[in-house]
Amino acid sequence: MLSLEGNQTRSDFIVHKLDSISAHLFGYVASFSKTSNRNFSKPMKIFRSLTLIINYKTFLLTGLAVVSTYACYEMGLTAQFPDMLIGIAIVFPVVFSIGSAYTRRETALQRFSDFKGHAIAIYFAARDWTNKDNDLAARAKTLIHEMLSTMKDMFKTSNQSEWDISEKKIYAMFSKLSSLVVEFKQQGVQSGEISRVNQYVSKMIIAFDSMRIIHRYRTPITLRAYSRVFIYAFPVIYAPYFASTFKDFSRELVYVMPVMYSFILVSLDNIQDQLENPFDEVGEDDIVIEAEETSRLLS
Hints:
Blueprint: H1 10-36, H2 41-53, H3 56-75, H4 84-128, H5 136-156, H6 160-182, H7 191-216, H8 221-237, H9 239-244, H10 256-276, H11 291-297
Helix pairs in contact: 1-2, 3-8, 3-10, 4-5, 4-7, 4-8, 4-10, 5-6, 5-11, 6-7, 8-10
C-alpha cells in the first residue's frame, strides 16, 4: 500500500498527489513573486488560495456537466428532479466530512501545543533547576529539535517504511529524554521535582500518540467514497434536469446552472481534501511544525 491508511485506495493516493503537486507549484510561484516584488504578495496569496479550491477536478466536472446537459437537450431527454436531493445526497455528507476534518485539525493543534509546551518546560527545568556546569540543557535542546524535525518528516511522508523508521527514532528520543531527566538527581534536584518533569515526558508521549492516531485515522472512508461517487455522477444524473431549464434562461446563460452546481460541489470536496491531513503542509490551514524556530527560542 502506498498510503498509511490501511483502507485508503490507490486512486485516493494519486488524487492526493496531484493536488499536492498543484498546490506546491502555485506555492513556488507565490514565493517567487514575493521575493521579486512585495506589491504582488497579497494578490498571489489570494490566487494560491483559489488554486486549492479550484483544480483539475473543477474543470473536469464542469466540462462533463456542460457536455451532458447539451447531449440531453439535443436528444430531448428532460426531467424535473427535486433540488432537495442534491442537499441530502451530496451537500450534507460533504459538509459533515468538512466539520469532522476541521475538528480533527483543532484537536491536533491542541495536542501539538501540549507536546511543544511540555518540551520547552523540560528544557527550562534542565537549564534553571540544575547546576550551571553541565550540558543537560544543551542536550535537552538538541533532543527537542531532533524530535520536532523527525515528527515533521514523519507526518509529511506517505511511505510506510519511512513512517516506521521515524516512529522508532522518536520513541528512542523519548527514552533518551527520560534518561536525561533521571540525571537531574545527580545535580541536586529534589525527587518531587524530578517526578514532575517525568510527568512532562509522559504528557509529551501522550500528545505525540494522539497526533499519530489523528494522522492515521481520518474521517470515515466510506462516507468520503459515497460523497465522491455522487459528486462525479452528478453532472450525468442531473443533465436532464438542467436541459429542462433551457427555456427559462436566455441563450447566453443556459449553462450557468450546471456549471455553478458542479463548481460548488467540487469546491466543497476540495476543501474537505485540504483539511483531511492537517500535517501535510499543502493546505493553508495545515499545522506547520517549526523545529528551527523552536530551537531559536530556547536560549
